[in-house]
Each structure stands twice: as C-alpha cells, then as structure tokens.
Design brief:
Structural class: alpha+beta
Number of domains: 3
Helix content: 40-55%
Order of helices and strands: HHHHHHEEEEEEEEHEEHHHHH
CATH class of the largest domain: Mainly Alpha
Mean pLDDT: 92
Strand order of the largest sheet: 1-4-5-8
Low-confidence stretches: none
CATH superfamily of the largest domain: Butyryl-CoA Dehydrogenase, subunit A, domain 3
Length: 412
C-alpha cells in the first residue's frame, strides 16, 4: 500500500507553522513600506524563535529545528504564503541564505562553521552566493573569475552578475577558477569572503522586472541582485570551502536545494492565485450568469488544478528521495522546469479571469505575474534543464533498454 498520510510529527509542525504565518506574519504584511523592513523582520524573528520555529532545515546542534526533507517541504509551503518574503525571513530560511547555509553545513570545516555558520543561524549576519557571471550565464563552467595562490592567500579577479542580496550581506560565497588545466568540472573552488571588502566592489543593484511595484520604506535596500567587480580580492587560504576543485559540485548541490525550495513556495503562490480566480469567477456576473458557470472558465480552472496537483506530487516525491539519500538530479530538473511554468500559467490564468481588474494593482496578481516570470530563469533557464532531461532519457535507454529510470520509473 502507498501511504500519503503525513507522519504525526510532520502534521504537527506544519500546523504550528501555518498558525504562526496566519496569526503573526500575514498581519505584519501591511507594515511593509511604512517602516524599515528589517525592523519588521527582527520583531518577527524574535517571535518565531520563541515558538521554536527557526531555520527548519538546520541540524539541532547548530541551532535549527533539525527537520527532515519531508517536514521541511511542508513547512516551506506554509512559509511561501507570505508574499513579501516576511515568512522566510521570520524563520531565517530566506534564499539565497538557506541553500548557502546548507553548503556550509555539508562542506565547512569545524572552524568555518563556528566562525560563519553559527552567526548565520543566529541571524546575526547574512550571506550571498556569487557564482553567476554575465559572460557565462547558464554555463557555470564558463566563468572567468580567477583565483591565484600567493603564499597563505588566494587573489581573485573577475566579475559577478546577479549576486542576490550581496548589498545587504556580511559574507559572500565566491566561486572562481583555481586550476584551468584540471578536468572541466574540477577547475573551480569556492571561497568565504567577509564583507565589506575593497576587492569585492558592488557596482550596482541591477534593476529588474516588477521591482518598482514592491513597497519600500524611504528607498531602502532589502535584497537586490548585485553586479560585482572583483579586483585583487585577497582571501585567506583558510577560507577555501570544501576543498580545491570542489566548487562546481558544491554549487550544484546548493542549487539543488534552492530549486526545491522555489517549488515549495510556488505551490503556495499558485494556490493563492487559484483561490483568487475561483472567488472572482463565483462573484462576477456577465450576460446574466456568474462567470463560474461558463464552461470555458471551468476548463481554465481545471487545467490549473491539474498542474498544481502534479506539482504537489513532484515535491513530495523529491522530498522522499532526499530523505532516502537517492539520486534526484533528473527529477529535480524535471520539477524545476515544470513548476516554473506551472506558477506562471496559474497566475496568468487568474489574471485573465479577473479581466481588467487583474491588470491593476487592486489585486496582487499583476505584481505576482512579473515576479514569477523569473522562475523560468533562476537556477538555470528552462532550456538547459529540458536539454539535460532529454539527454538523460537517451542515456537511460542506451544503458538499460528503457527510458523508465529517467521518467520516474523507480516510483512505479
């Protein structure tokens, strides 16, 4: 028998998180833009810690809740119902911090964990991830930033693009090419860089689609995607993370967690958009009938419900594979691609059902529409993931005479 019941402890932590989001976080949403954002965050974090809701994915010995992958998945879905990201900040599981903490947990030395992980978990500092470069784009192995050893230091030179939250961080995880003669995926290493640093120059926060629709208090910076110039950046050899030549594999491990988290949050936002669509369809009348009675509208809602259902199953299956320590690279790429398009379609459909109202800022849909478009680009564009998935389908057939293992065949 296949059992889809959540264990009692997982149900309990989900209920506790949901209550906290409903009773504490969502009421605070109205304050965004009226007072400093991180003042609101600090208050929420104090309340979350008092409830024992803190860093869900971090082991208890480092100050987190020590949740398994399934429990973390359902918690993150509840967290995703906060659309100003206050829920994630409140529980200290905001991207890109969360996935970068995972990297430190998995690959950091004891000294690095004490120096950097502990204050990150305590919420005393913030960290960004600097891998992407304008010249390389989706091909991480095409990055041109170099690191050259000089005595007990490494000297880095190059540029970074879309280093999310760099402008508000006190620590950066920077990837650079350390050995151009090594095998392609072993040429790169990752360094922990304390900020501010004159060698890590933030040129600007890159203006992005939908940015002007986000409430800001006196033009404060609360995140952003930084363009960075790296000029003679000196890093102690002690700040090499995970070993020489391990940067690429560590980066992919980190991105894997981030892709799943995006999927969890997408479920919450898609569900909210579908709820708005159903409410509008039931309330609005045209030509003497509620919009909800139109067969075409019912089909639109049915398509959205179908894709949301499939997304839930994908996330649960991936969480299961993570719990078992199984290889989930193929499923993660499939899910990342599918979910990014799912959330875009559901929000777009809800906007369409709202008609001209959906195009205004009287509902959150116009803002969501701009925001979710990024999901088809972040952590790898659609086309790269589809290429990888298709390649794996062919490889599976070559090895096994069947494509099943590349199409969820280990499930049924």
């Amino acid at each position: 028998m296949i059992d889809f019941d959540l264990p009692e402890d997982v149900q309990a932590v989900r209920a506790k998180t949901a209550a906290f989001i409903d009773e504490v976080v969502l009421p605070a949403e109205s304050q965004v833009g009226t007072r400093p954002y991180f003042d609101i965050v600090a208050e929420l974090q104090g309340k979350a810690r008092a409830e024992g809701l803190w860093c869900p994915f971090v082991p208890r010995e480092w100050g987190g809740m020590g949740l398994g992958h399934l429990a973390n998945a359902v918690v993150q879905i509840e967290v995703g119902r906060s659309f100003s990201h206050l829920g994630a900040w409140a529980l200290n599981c905001m991207g890109p911090q969360d996935a970068t903490m995972v990297t430190l947990i998995e690959h950091g030395t004891q000294e690095q964990k004490e120096r950097y992980l502990r204050p990150l978990v305590d919420g005393k500092i913030r960290i960004c991830f600097s891998m992407t470069e304008r010249a390389a784009g989706a091909d991480a192995t095409g990055m041109r930033t170099t690191a050259v050893r000089e005595g007990d230091e490494w000297v880095l030179n190059g540029e970074k693009w879309f280093s999310s939250s760099a402008s508000i961080s006190q620590l950066a995880l920077v990837m650079a090419r350390t050995d151009p003669e090594a095998p392609r995926h072993q040429q790169f290493s990752t360094f922990l860089v304390e900020l501010p640093n004159p060698g890590f120059l933030i040129v600007r926060d890159i203006p992005v689609m939908g940015e002007n629709d986000t409430p800001r208090f006196e033009n404060e910076v609360v995140g952003g995607h930084a363009e960075v110039a790296i000029e003679n950046l000196r890093v102690s050899a002690k700040n090499l993370l995970g070993g020489l030549g391990e940067g690429f594999s560590m980066g992919q491990h980190r991105l894997g967690y981030g892709r799943l988290r995006h999927g969890m949050w997408a479920i919450a936002k898609a569900q909210a958009a579908l709820d708005l669509a159903a409410k509008r369809a039931l309330e609005r009348e045209t030509f003497g009938k509620p919009v909800a009675e139109r067969q075409g509208v019912q089909w639109m809602l049915a398509d959205c419900a179908t894709e949301l259902y499939l997304t839930r199953l994908m996330v649960l299956h991936i969480a299961y594979k993570m719990e078992k320590g199984l290889d989930l690279r193929q499923e993660n790429s499939i899910a990342k691609n599918y979910i990014a398009n799912m959330i875009h379609k559901v929000v777009d459909t809800s906007l369409q059902i709202h008609g001209s109202l959906g195009f205004t800022h009287d509902t959150p849909l116009a803002h969501w529409y701009q925001e979710v478009r990024a999901q088809r680009l972040v952590d790898g564009p659609d086309e790269v993931h589809r290429w990888k998935v298709g390649k794996n389908v062919l490889d599976a057939y070559r090895k096994h005479g069947s494509t099943a293992l590349a199409a969820g065949g280990d499930l049924v």
